[in-house]
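Reopening: structure tokens for the magnesium ion complex, inputs below.
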Amino acid sequence: QAYTVVLPAAGQGKRMGAGHNKQFLLIDGVPLLIHTLRVFEGDSLCTSIILAVNEKETEEIQSLLKEYSIKKVTAVVIGGRERQQSVFEGLKAADDGIVLIHDAARPFITATIIHELVEETKRSGAAIVAVPLKDTIKLVSEDTIEKTEDRTKLWAAQTPQAFWLSDIMAAHQVAEDKGYEGTDDASILEYSGGKVKIVKGNYENFKVTTPEDLIFAEAMVASRRR
Ligand code: CTP
Ligand code: MG
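Re-run output (same inputs, fresh job):
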């Protein structure tokens, strides 16, 4: 089953504090964004890649695509102020069928998990990659614990998240019209009453977010090379 992937890459990388978009930082000498693109470039089921980028970074990204021979990018669209808007812009450039939405900042997703996700989406209509929480989660008000959540039912949502294009487009339109701000794309579909399945992923698929993540990322590349 073929799919399109939308990669939101129009953030600022504020928590990384690198002074520019974190996706240009080098991991093992190669830009973070390229690591992520290579996964999809190398997956035969992926028919096209859509990038949502900051307008002022468009040229830099186009030249990276050339330099690293990334050939599946069919559209580079301008992202929005929030991730949700960047994704919606990307979806507008996607072809009908199954669409994956994947953070540009998660370079360690594997084709195996992507294929499990695509299969589950074919069966159920919508699915996301997620992992069971390792930490105990506390609901806190003003430094005091109000409640300890039941960890056995808590999962951390990752990406990719996969949908039929028409379903997720319609849900994004509803969210935009109603001013609903979701923190991921599953929550956007849930808001419209959609049901979303979980595909168990792994902890290697972390999002490069804060400075120490660069140390983990270097270690991941080294360990996969062994
Ligand atoms: N993203 C986007 N458009 C936005 C905000 C985020 O396309 N307006 C993208 C980022 O480029 C990233 C992904 O969404 O690949 C996940 O977001 P996050 O990890 O939060 O990245 P940033 O928003 O760049 O980082 P920060 O929140 O620390 O500023
Ligand atoms: Mg962000």
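Residues 43 and 111 are 6 Å apart (CA to CA). Helices lie at 32-41, 58-67, 83-91, 111-124, 165-178, 185-191, 212-225. Marking as resolved unless the reporter disagrees.
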